[in-house]
Specification:
Elements: H1 2-47, H2 54-76, H3 83-120
Helix pairs in contact: 1-2, 2-3
Length: 121
């Protein structure tokens, strides 16, 4: 039975490391693309003298990226070797979850502000 567990570990560790790395990379790509997209839209609206809230677009990209990065952290729990690593990983997950909540709150408040401005006009 111990040999089976060893074989499973030998298979899971590299798979978990690769999967976590891919999810981290996807999160980074989403942040870069979302930031560039928000910046381009902001410049277009400035040139057209339009009203645009960059926080909404950028917040959505950051929120999505954080979801991928949190998924990577959860997968990393498979390759934890001691309690110190688990404590660090747990702290990272809590911080990322708080950031996701704050970003979600900001997006929601921006939408409410936009709706309020539209009804006042």
């Amino acid at each position: 039975m111990s040999q089976i567990a060893d074989y499973i570990n030998e298979f899971l560790h590299p798979l978990a490391e690769i999967s976590a790395g891919v999810l981290e990379l996807i999160g980074i790509i989403i942040i870069i693309v979302g930031s560039c997209r928000a910046l381009v839209r902001l410049f277009k609206h400035i040139l057209a003298k339009g009203n645009f809230s960059v926080a909404n677009d950028l917040g959505r990209a950051l929120s999505l990226a954080l979801e991928f990065k949190m998924g990577a952290e959860i997968i990393k729990t498979v390759i934890i070797h001691n309690l110190e690593e688990l404590a660090i990983l747990g702290s990272v997950i809590v911080i990322r979850a708080l950031l996701a909540f704050i970003i979600h709150f900001e997006i929601h408040s921006e939408k409410n502000k936009s709706k309020k401005k539209e009804t006042e006009q």
